[in-house]
Every structure is written in C-alpha cells, then in structure tokens.
C-alpha cells in the first residue's frame, strides 16, 4: 500500500513536483528545510520555516506555502492553518514601508488612536491595507514594549516615539522622499 | 564528580578573569551606554558612535566604551554612565550626540561633570564618599536606622561634612544575603566598592578614620562574600528611582554587557549551576527552590519548586524545559528587557531547572517582535556552548543539556502553556483542556516544565545567595521580588523591581514619581488584558499574588499602567475587551462569542446608545465567560469589565442614563464649545480645524458649528487661552 501513497512521495511525478517546490523557494530556504527534515520532529520547525520565507519574500504567497508543505511533508491545509492563525504572518504582499502603530495600553491611553486616524486619513487606507502606489502599508501592532516613548509608531525597523497627529505628515513625507531618492539613484 | 565540577568551575573563573584582565576591565575609565530596544529607539546608537569617534580622535588608550543593557529608567533614556576609577560614578540622562561630545570633553578628559544633565539631578558625585545603608523597611533584618545615626556621629567627630561624605538610606540592599555576625549591619562604601559589617560605633569610627581619611580599607570588617546588590547600588545607589528598589531578577541589568559572558561570570554567574552540579542531587535544587517560596512570575503564581517536583516524578525517558518569553501583554516589557540586558541569568536558570527535573532539551519560546532579544539569546547560547556550559557533559559533571530557540508569531494565546506547546510543535497555537497538565504530558507527549523569563532569572540568585534569604525578601506566601513595567500616566516610566508586599502607592508615587501634569490618580491597571483595575483608594494594598486576586485583579506578568482622571474606565474596559476578542483563538464558544458580544455592548455604551439593561447583560455575560471558557485567556478576559463594574459602576451608569462620559473621553458623548468670554479671536482654532467648522472674525469670539464638528479635539489642543472647553 505504501508504494501508492503520495505522502511517501512515490507517485510518478514526484520528481517534477519536488523540483517545482524547490524552484518556488530560495536555495537557502530549501537547504534549511532539508536540515529540518533531519530533526526528530520536522513538523515542529514549520513556524521557523515560515518566518524565513516571510523574511525573504515579505509575505507568504500561495506558491511558497505549497512548496513548504511539499518539502517539509506537512499537509497544505496544516501549513495554511498555521500561516493564517498567527498575526505575524501575512498572506498578501505589503508596501515598501510598513507603518505599525502600537496599540498597547500605554500608547492607547496616550493617544495612539488619534495618531492612527491621522495616518488613515493621510494615506487614505485602513489598517491592514496598502496604498495603491505600493509605498505604505498600515498596521496595528501589539505592544512593542517601548512604553516609555508612547505613543509609538514604527516604520519598518525605525521607531518613532511621542507621536502626535501633527507629526504624521512630515513623517510620511520623509519616507516618500526617501523612496524617491532611492529610485532616482537606482535609475542613475 | 564534585571535584571534577569544582575544578572545571575554578578553571572557568580563572580563564574569565584573565580575559577581563587583558581587557583592563575595571581599571580603565569606562563610559557605559545602554543598548536595549528602548535605549536604541531613544538614540543610544548615535551616542555610542559619537563616543567611539571621540575616543579615537583623542588618542587615549585608557578609555573603554562599555555596552550595557537597560537599567529600567526608560523615560530618561539614553543613559550614559561615566566611571572613573576612584571617583563616584556619574550617570547622565537623555544624552544625544551633542551632549555625548560635551560629556567626553568636559567630564572624561577634563574631570568636570556636567551637573545640569545628571540623571534625576543626583548631586552625590560632588562628594568624595557615600555610605549606603539599608533602611530596613521590609524585613527588619538590618539594625533599625541606628547605623545611619552612628555614622553621622562618627563623621561629625571627624569633622567631615555632607559635602565630603554623604549617607544614603535606601530600600533593601539585599545585603542580608551575606552571612554576618549577630547584630551587625552591612553597609556599602562608594565609590570604592567596599562592603563592611558594622556592629559597634567603634566600627563606624574606624571605617571613617582608616578608610575615608586614611585611604585604606578596614580589612577585618570587610565583607568577603559579595552581596547580590553590591554592583547595582555601587552604580545606581544615588538615585531615588533606583534606591527604593531591590534587584534580584534584574541584578545585572544595566551593569554587565549582555553580549559578553565574561562579565556575567565575574559577577557570580554560573556559580549556582556549579553549586547544583557539585551537590549532585537534583532533589536538593528542588528543595531549595521550594524553601525560597518562588512562585511563577508569568502571572499564575504557581509554586515553582512544586512544579519541578511534579514534573520530576513523571519523567520516564525524556522531558523538556521551556522558557516562556512570549510576552504579549500590552504595556509589559519586563521579559524583553531582562533578555536584552542579562540573557545569561535566564539561561543559567533554565540549566538549573533542567538539571533539577532531568531535562536534556530546553526551548526558548520568544516573540518574533523582539529581534534584539532573539539576537542576544542566540549570542549568549553560542558563548555558553563555547565554554562548555551548554551541550554535552556540562562542567565535567556528566549532565548534558542544550537549548534551542523557537519564535512565536504574534498570538497572545500562546502565552497559555498548552497553546505554547502546540506552537513549538509547529501547530496553530490553540490551548487544550487540562489535565493532563504539561508536568505529565507536554511537548511531544513528554513531561514538560514551562516557566517565565523572570522566574528563571531568579533561580541562580536563590542558590547563590540562599533560599531562606530569598524567602525573607518577600511575603509569607511568596518569596523574592517582582518586576513591574511601570507605564501610562506616571512621571518615571520604567522597569521597577520591588519586594513582594510593597504597596502600589510606593511603586507609583515614590519610585514612579506620581502622576504628571498635576492630575490625580484614578486607578492602576495590573496584569494586562487579563487583569483588573485597582482604584486609587486601594493603592495602599501590598502587592502579592493573593492580595491582588482578592481585589479582582491579578499580578499577571507585571504590567502596571497608571490611569488618571482623564481616562474613562468604560473605554479602558473596551480597549482590553477588543484586545481579547481579537486574540481569542476561537476554539471554545464562551470566549469566541462572549468576548465579541461583550465588546458590542461596551461599544454601545461608549457611543451613548447603551441602556441600564446592557450593564446587567454585560455583567452576566462576563461571569459566564469567566466560568466556562477553556483556557486562561477566556477565563480572565472579563476581569477588566468586572473590576471596572465593581469600582466604577457610576461611570457606566452616567454613560447610559445621562449620556455623559465623566472623564470626557468617549467621543460620541462629548462636544467642544468656545467660551466667548475667554476667546480673544486669535483665529488659531479656525485655522487648525480640519473640517472648517469654526467661524468668527479676527479679534471676535469664534463659534463651533456643532453639526459639522467631527470632535477631533484639534481646537482644544491649539487654543492658548483655554477658551475651548470639552463638555
């Protein structure tokens, strides 16, 4: 019976399927999954693999999720279940700059709500959305643990403390300019 | 085996001291710069670079830059310490690159501290000496207050004024951990880093005469076993924020370089592990932890020794030890700070725990949102492996254990132990029914111990400084201290470690410096979304697992958010309910549906559409969810609602019967008006209004069109004449 079971990877097109899965990920990630396979409990490494995939691609696309499932030999439904359960994982691409508004308690009582409203208004998007030009994504985030700087906004890895609605336009402009400058440099 | 371990530990120590010697640690001038996430966000990296540049260009080779973790004085970051041998250490607050340059030129090179920028305006750096004595507030183990008096008399006799020698009475110094003659008190002399046992007035006179005047330590009075807090008070003993604390879990935070194992070893690091391995009896470790009355610091408060004992009994072939560093409570950052400032103490605690229960594998389960903490743990684990403190045959004892890191992925429910185990196994982080408890069947079906970061950080201190001492620091049922993340409407936000049994008032007013802006304290929220609110009239309650539980809140992992009169309690309850509703994993109905319905009711109430019946419904639902949910998340989710209903019911009633928000916070229930008598017609509000609903001519009172107003509050903020009122 085991010879016909696809879970054991013994169908005719196994090689083709595996090759496609490998092609959907970077060689580093494929190699990492290989090392995980040697673990006593390979499925225990699923979240770690997804972290690596998201770190590289910025989000977890369907192709990548399928490939991870195939290579780690965990069912796609389980992989998808995990990818959609945790807040940290995204299944949609995000903007170049991800603006995360901390909605921890300290930030909340110090006016984070008004900062997010201003961001929404300026960008014309809600939480979880990305601007049409692909420049900004807006996220609400769990406490960033820098409560002394409340309210806090993070743009990619940069932390901005003591935010007020007033500071929002200049903050956005700063990054828009940065993006413009970078693309000009690229062209040059 | 004992001799082997002893030998291995002594070698480790000697090698470490040699390496430190090569670095001239402790001899050169040291500039300490904080380096935790919050320090970096406040600009510590730029400060570091500025000092680097300055040292290079000065051509001096006797000045070292020293990276340390976080001291917990968050609102004053970045903090820089200047340590010149033989001089009182000076700490500066809110340093930027420009100030760093001035500190370097004026203080480091020319020896003139910049008084205006000293942390909390501490003035002791002007004195030559400082004698630090314990005021014995909590345990009474030190001779009551008399030591300070004795020293004052001795100083007067020797004609040394307060400009030369200062005496500071501080909270528990932790000096009682050191064995000493009956009736003696331990004091610390700064800046020479010397601790003495003082028994008679003559002892005090000798210290003044021989040490302070003569310049030689009084060897026969000197304490050779160094007390736990010596390093901490030597560095920070002058500032009120620090001196009222008692650092055990955070004993190295802000003192050692978190990326350098040598400094940790030098400050008694891994001595507890060596002690445990030398004894060769895991039961002894468990007995010690039980005697210490250490209770789980993650919030549950389960006795740690008992948990370890239960697990040990269940072990057949394999068992695991897990450090829960999935700190998800909004407003809590104790674990992040501990891991970023002193990861080694947590690792040592895990190793000791692993040895006690018989685990060979350990896991750090860390939030992915804490990249710096993850990096530091990785580095620390590598360094431990390189020195044979992790891996096979640790310190030649035959005991082997390794630790791996697993990242969380932003699910609050993973703080619950069965959910956390599922997450480590690569599954959706959903809890399951207990029993079986993880002590019987946990990770991969094997007995598993899960403890919080702070719990593990305490363990080495218990073995090194004594379980009885640790128990004495706390209350009857709970030994040791608790770290709180103090935030919200308080002057000094930061990390605070105080003995169990300290009152909330002491933490908020004495250490936290009270509520800013002349506003009044309304309540203190403890325990995060699972906790409750303790109203202002109960802040003299001593902090303990049991006392907070009786008030309808919980200790939780240690978040402490201070709320003032401008905070609406219904709104705060709504905030936490929104959090719990969002974080509910959806497995059990009471939590999944109950939190949603409670949130809807709270939204109705805060938007002015609630009824009295809604309040009753809310209370009934809260009780139901509390009693029928599957895991801790659901069972605790109603706490903020129930505690606010208990203490602030009149606020709920005002929202539904009078359509009024007493704190003037809920937007649907307030509006803005311009007081014609106060308005001078400066047009400021009209120019700033985003919807142009304010009209009026220059130098004439303005008017708000209530139909168009979106209640953004902009006019209220910009008015310089207090003419805009929120009503």
What does this structure look like?
The complex is a heterodimer of chains A (188) and B (727). Helices cover 48% and strands 10% of the residues of chain A. Chain A is α+β, with helices and mostly antiparallel strands. In chain A, a hairpin with a 2-residue loop joins strand 3 and strand 4 (158-160). In chain A, helix 4 (62-72) packs across helix 5. Chain A starts with 13 loop residues before the first helix and ends with a helix. By secondary structure, chain B is α/β, with parallel strands linked by helices. Helix content of chain B is 40%, strand content 14%. Chain B contains 28 helices and 21 strands. In chain B, a hairpin with a 7-residue loop joins strand 19 and strand 20. The radius of gyration of chain B is 28 Å and the shape is globular. Classes of the chains: A alpha+beta (188), B alpha/beta (727). At the A-B interface, helix 3, helix 5 and helix 6 of A face helix 2, strand 13, strand 17 and helix 21 of B.
* Beta-strand percentage range of chain A: 5-15%
Beta-sheet strand percentage of chain B?
5-15%
Q: How would a crystallographer describe the biggest sheet of chain B?
A: 5 strands, mixed
Q: What's the number of helices of chain B?
A: 28
Strands of chain A, total number: 4
Tally of helical runs of chain A = 8
Distance between the termini of chain A: 62 Å
Mean pLDDT over the full residue set of chain B: 91
Provide the structure class of chain B: alpha/beta
Strand line-up across the major sheet of chain B: 14-13-17-15-16
Low-pLDDT regions of chain A: 1-6
Can you tell me the overall shape of chain B? globular
The largest pleated sheet of chain A is described as:
4 strands, mixed
State the secondary-structure class of chain A: alpha+beta
Distance from first to last alpha carbon of chain B: 76 Å
């Amino acid at each position: 019976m085991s010879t016909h079971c696809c879970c054991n990877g013994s169908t005719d097109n196994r090689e083709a399927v595996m090759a496609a899965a490998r092609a959907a990920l970077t060689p580093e990630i494929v190699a990492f999954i290989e090392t995980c396979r040697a673990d006593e409990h390979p499925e225990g490494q699923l979240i770690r693999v997804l972290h690596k995939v998201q770190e590289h691609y910025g989000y977890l696309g369907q192709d990548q999720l399928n490939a991870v499932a195939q290579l780690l030999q965990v069912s796609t439904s389980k992989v998808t279940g995990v990818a959609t359960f945790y807040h940290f994982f995204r299944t949609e691409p995000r903007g170049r700059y991800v603006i995360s508004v901390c909605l921890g308690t300290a930030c909340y009582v110090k006016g984070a709500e008004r900062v997010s409203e201003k961001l929404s208004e300026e960008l014309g998007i809600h939480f979880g959305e990305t601007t049409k030009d692909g420049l900004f994504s807006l996220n609400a985030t769990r406490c960033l643990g820098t409560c002394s700087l409340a309210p806090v906004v993070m743009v990619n890895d940069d932390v901005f403390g003591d935010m007020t609605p007033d500071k929002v336009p200049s903050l956005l402009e700063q990054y828009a300019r940065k993006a413009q400058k970078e693309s000009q440099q690229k062209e040059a | 085996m004992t001799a082997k371990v002893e030998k291995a530990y002594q070698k480790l120590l000697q090698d470490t001291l040699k390496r430190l010697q090569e670095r001239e640690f402790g001899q050169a001038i040291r500039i300490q710069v904080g380096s935790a996430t919050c320090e970096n966000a406040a600009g510590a990296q730029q400060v570091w670079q500025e000092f680097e540049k300055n040292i290079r260009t000065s051509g001096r080779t006797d000045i070292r830059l020293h990276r340390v973790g976080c001291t917990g004085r968050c609102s004053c970051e970045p903090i820089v310490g200047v340590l010149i041998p033989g001089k009182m250490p000076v700490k500066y607050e809110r340093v930027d690159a420009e100030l760093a340059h001035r500190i370097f030129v004026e203080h480091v090179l020319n020896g003139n501290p910049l008084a205006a920028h000293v942390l909390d305006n501490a003035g002791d750096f002007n004195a030559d000496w400082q004698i630090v004595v314990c005021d014995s507030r909590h345990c009474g183990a030190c001779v009551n207050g008399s030591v300070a008096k004795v020293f004052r008399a001795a100083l007067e006799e020797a004609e040394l004024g307060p400009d030369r020698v200062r005496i500071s009475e501080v909270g528990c110094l932790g000096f009682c951990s050191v064995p000493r003659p009956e009736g003696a008190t331990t004091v610390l002399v700064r800046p020479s880093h010397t601790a003495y046992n003082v028994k008679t007035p003559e002892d005090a006179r000798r210290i003044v005469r021989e040490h302070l005047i003569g310049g030689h330590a009084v060897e026969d009075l000197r304490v050779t076993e160094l007390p736990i807090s010596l390093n901490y008070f030597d560095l920070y003993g002058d500032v009120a924020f620090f001196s009222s604390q008692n650092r055990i879990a955070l004993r190295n935070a802000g003192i050692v370089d978190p990326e350098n194992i040598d400094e940790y070893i030098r400050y008694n690091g891994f001595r507890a592990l060596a002690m445990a391995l030398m004894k060769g009896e895991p039961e002894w470790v468990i007995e010690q932890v039980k005697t210490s009355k250490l209770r789980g610091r993650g919030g549950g408060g389960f006795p740690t020794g008992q948990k370890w004992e239960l697990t040990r009994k269940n072990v057949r072939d394999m068992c695991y030890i897990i450090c829960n560093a999935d700190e998800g409570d909004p407003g809590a950052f104790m674990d992040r700070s501990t891991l970023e400032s002193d990861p080694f103490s947590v690792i040592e605690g895990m190793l000791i725990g692993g040895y006690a229960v018989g685990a060979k594998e350990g896991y750090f389960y860390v939030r992915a949102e804490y990249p710096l903490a993850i990096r530091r743990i990785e580095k620390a684990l590598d360094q431990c492996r390189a020195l044979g403190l992790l891996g096979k045959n640790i310190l030649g004892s035959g005991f082997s254990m390794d630790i791996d890191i697993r990242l969380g992925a932003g699910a609050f429910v993973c703080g619950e132990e069965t959910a956390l185990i599922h997450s480590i196994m690569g599954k959706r982080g959903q809890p399951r029914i207990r029993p079986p408890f993880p002590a019987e069947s946990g990770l991969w079906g094997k007995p598993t111990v899960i403890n919080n970061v702070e719990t593990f950080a305490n363990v080495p201190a218990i073995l090194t400084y004594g379980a009885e001492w640790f128990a004495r620091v706390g209350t009857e049922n709970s030994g040791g201290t608790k770290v709180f993340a103090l935030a919200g409407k308080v002057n000094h936000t930061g990390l605070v470690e105080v003995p169990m049994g300290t009152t909330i008032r002491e933490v908020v007013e004495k250490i936290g410096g009270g509520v800013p802006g002349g506003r009044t304290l309304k309540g203190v929220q403890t325990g995060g979304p699972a906790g409750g609110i303790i109203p202002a009239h109960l802040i003299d309650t001593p902090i303990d697992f049991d006392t907070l539980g009786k008030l309808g809140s919980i200790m939780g992992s240690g978040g402490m958010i201070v709320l003032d009169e401008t905070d609406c309690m219904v709104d705060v309850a709504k905030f936490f309910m929104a959090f719990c509703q969002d974080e509910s994993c959806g497995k059990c109905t009471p939590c999944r549906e109950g939190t949603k319905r409670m949130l809807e009711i709270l939204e109705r109430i805060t938007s002015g559409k609630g009824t009295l019946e809604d309040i009753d419904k809310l209370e009934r639902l809260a009780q139901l969810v509390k009693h029928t949910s599957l895991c801790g998340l659901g069972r605790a989710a109603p706490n903020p609602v129930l505690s606010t209903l208990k203490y602030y019911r009149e606020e709920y009633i005002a929202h539904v019967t009078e359509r009024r928000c007493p704190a003037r916070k809920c937007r649907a229930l307030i509006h803005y008006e311009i007081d014609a008598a106060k308005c001078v017609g400066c047009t400021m509000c009209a120019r700033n209004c985003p919807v142009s609903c304010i009209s009026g001519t220059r130098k004439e009172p303005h008017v708000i069109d209530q139909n168009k107003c979106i209640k953004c509050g902009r006019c209220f903020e910009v008015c310089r004449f207090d003419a805009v009122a929120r009503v």
